[in-house]
């Protein structure tokens, strides 16, 4: 998969129609705006996944789960809270300067919409991208983080209060007031080898959706996940057979 597949997805087409209605442009122009901006935003995500800290920050953002609300509720497009959220996403992905004027002008020319209008739409598109990633990778991200950090997905490392966290559920089942993933970011940052394994798995999952990272894509991650979760069992079985 990659950005082209995302822009052609049913969610993206429906979102483009909602953007068009909000900003008074043709659906094709709204689709063009998404096509012009999503590669830059995806590039920002790729850059963030190059460091463990960047991956931890992305998990913080993704595990909140609230970005997909803009997909389910078009009335949130243009809302001040959504604008603020989208600007924060852009700042995180692309740096404090965000979309520099030259990049915005180039994207506007590609999309066929005025640059000031594209600038208004950009935060909405940024929120959409994180919502799309959450919706389409929540269960896999939960599995890879839980398995890497919890030794086979049974329990998570100790929480800040010293207790053991329960098995990690599908990210998509959590709510703002009930989010057991709160310590994943710090575990990735400070979890030694297991934190690094979790970070690598998360990068592979996001890369499989956005078209960057390991050339093995999502199948490569699945193989890694199987080895991570069941590798010791398989290894012990092979050793038993060898000894016999």
Helices and strands, with pairings:
Blueprint: H1 3-7, H2 10-23, H3 27-48, H4 52-63, H5 69-72, H6 80-94, H7 101-111, H8 115-150, H9 184-190, H10 192-210, H11 217-243
Helix pairs in contact: 2-3, 2-8, 3-6, 3-7, 3-8, 4-9, 6-8, 8-10, 9-10, 10-11
Number of strands: 0
What coarse outline follows from CA principal-axis ratios?
Answer: globular
Nearest-angstrom radius of gyration?
20 Å
The overall number of domains is 1
Distance between the termini: 45 Å
Give the SSE order as H and E letters: HHHHHHHHHHH
Main sheet? none
Structural class: mainly alpha
Mean pLDDT level: 74
Give the low-confidence spans.
Answer: 151-169, 215-239
Number of helices: 11
The portion of residues assigned to helices is: over 70%
Strand content: under 5%
Description of the structure:
This protein is mostly helical and 244 residues long. The chain has one domain (3-243). Helix content is 70%, strand content 0%. The protein is built from eleven helices and no strands. It has helices spanning 3-7, 10-23, 27-48, 52-63, 69-72, 80-94, 101-111, 115-150, 184-190, 192-210, 217-243. α3 (27-48) crosses α8 (115-150) and α10 crosses α11 (217-243). The chain is globular, with a radius of gyration of 20 Å.
């Amino acid at each position: 998969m990659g950005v082209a597949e995302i822009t052609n997805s049913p969610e993206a087409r429906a979102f483009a129609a909602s953007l068009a209605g909000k900003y008074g442009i043709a659906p094709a122009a709204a689709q063009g705006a998404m096509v012009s901006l999503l590669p830059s935003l995806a590039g920002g995500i790729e850059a963030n996944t190059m460091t463990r800290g960047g991956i931890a920050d992305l998990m913080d953002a993704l595990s909140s789960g609230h970005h997909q609300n803009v997909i389910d509720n078009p009335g949130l497009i243009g809302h001040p809270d959504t604008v603020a959220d989208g600007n924060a996403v852009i700042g995180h992905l692309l740096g404090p300067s965000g979309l520099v004027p030259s990049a915005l002008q180039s994207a506007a020319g590609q999309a066929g919409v005025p640059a000031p209008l594209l600038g208004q739409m950009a935060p909405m598109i940024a929120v959409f991208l994180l919502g799309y990633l959450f919706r389409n990778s929540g269960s896999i991200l939960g599995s890879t983080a839980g398995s890497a950090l919890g030794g086979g997905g049974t329990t998570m490392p100790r929480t800040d209060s010293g207790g053991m966290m329960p098995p990690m559920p599908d990210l998509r089942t959590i709510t703002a007031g009930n989010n057991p993933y709160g310590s994943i970011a710090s575990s990735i940052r400070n979890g030694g080898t297991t934190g690094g394994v979790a970070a690598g798995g998360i990068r592979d999952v996001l890369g499989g959706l956005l078209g960057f990272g390991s050339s093995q894509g999502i199948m490569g991650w699945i193989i890694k996940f199987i080895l991570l979760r069941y590798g010791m069992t398989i290894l012990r079985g092979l050793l038993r057979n060898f000894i016999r």
